[in-house]
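Cross-check.
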Amino acid sequence: MSFVGGHPSRRDLAALCLHRGAGEDDRGVWLPTTGHRSPKFCTLGNRISPTHGRGGPGVRSPESAGPEGRPCRIVSVVFFVREWYHRRVASRTRSLFAHVPYPLMDTLDYQGDPGLFGPDSVTWTVMGDPATFVGGIRALLIQSAHPEVVAGVADHSRYEDDPLGRLSRTSAYVTATAYGAMPEVERAIDVVQRTHRPIKGVSHRGRPYTADDPPLSAWVHNTLTDSFLVSHQTYGPEPLTVDDADRFVAEQTRVGALLDTDPMPDTAEALASWLIDHLDVASSPGMKEAMIFLRSPPLSPGVKIAYRILYQAAVATIPTRLRRVLGVHRHLGARTIGRLLIRFLRWTLGGSPSWQLALIRVGAEVPDGRFLTEPVIPPPGWAPRQGE
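Predicted model, tokenized:
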């Protein structure tokens, strides 16, 4: 998508970025972005690019030298290195999730709408960190341990033929329910319900299943919640307190309620116990096929190296009973290596752009240093289009 002059439409606004060049005032100028049909933002490089000239934003000039009058060149070098990695890692990351339209493309039309959670929620903090990469893999692994759930995937999904499409759809659902305004949340829920409605069959052990059956929905929902929480506690910037962990679990029940999910434990301890002691967990042909795929999905060589680290980091957090059912083993040092990779991803990617966009939508303060993107600030006089 590209922006063609004039005032941005509601679809174009999310693809604009505030860009401060050398010699400009703090108001900045609006520039279009091109390429993917998803919001892209000016990265740190827009503040430090050599094209801005000496003394441009992000590169300290002799006039802004250190205490002894020397330019702070080390700081500039660090910014350049970080930007180099940011561009490459962000580009490869976006390519994994760019197989469906971005779910928050119109989110700035819903000014002040906090969605299901809002800026003071634990959910926005947890879901905005790169540790969710581990959480997503962990959830898929544990979900495979339920024979009826995995049978529904094996019998009705094309994940082996279109793995990135399924990944993108799942990511879009999680993004919309976490950060979307209520109309975007409702659209995401409607998509899931329409997709699940025709999915029904019989598992290898003779049990009938339907994708919208509340207990099966509970297995999918609860594994997602537990996995994002455990991954944040293990690989996040700092663990949540017991109270905040419980708050996160309780917040996530709002999503499950929209899908008629039942049961949904509302504390972290109760949720973990529910998963570990679940009576329906067992090995199955569908699980074995899913595990083969999850161990080595069709990714490019560079991405697959990172994926293998994230995969082992996810396995390292799965409870013993579930690991035995899945047939996976913890590798020595997997957590340590996983933490190092997540720290690198946090350093290169910063917080989720969807989190930043949601903060702007509700008019909340955008924390300094949390994001590697410039704020998406509407220009003077901008207002959403009416009647669309």
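Strands lie at 17-19, 29-31, 200-202, 208-210. Residues 129-160+192-339 form one domain. Passed to J.P. for a second look.
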